[in-house]
Amino acid sequence: MNMNQKLKYVLLGLGTGLLFFVVSGIITSLLPNSFFTRMTPINTLDYIFLASSSILLGAYVGVHYYKKNTIKKCDTIATTGGIGSFFAFACPICNKLLVFVFGATTLMTYFEPYRPILGFVSNGLLAGAVWWRIKR
Length: 136
Hints:
This protein is an all-alpha fold and 136 residues long. The protein has six helices and no strands. It has helices spanning 3-27, 44-66, 75-89, 96-102, 104-111, 115-135. Helix 1 (3-27) packs antiparallel against helix 2 and helix 4 crosses helix 5. The longest helix is centred in the first third of the chain and has 25 residues, at 3-27.
């Protein structure tokens, strides 16, 4: 594979990571905007999970497309890690679907205290998926 093709996959990964960072940051109001208002306080871990998830998802997408003809596993792990990481830094009561299904009180009582654990586990899944893609 020549240098131009490798550069294409690096740029694809960087673009995906940046897009995830900006879109998720705006939706969760971690990046200040006038479209959404966050109802729970922001802490440092929210920013850490947003940044690390963006980097890991970008790396996974770049490596995935670089090696897409050689291995077809880890997509489920990466998807689970991506969704879990989004919930780790998102405001639980700002998500209308979660509030509809579980109720705001249930989310704040049973989900909010465990968001950091969800973030670490989700980023671990993403890191494992990236590592698995690189090693295979």
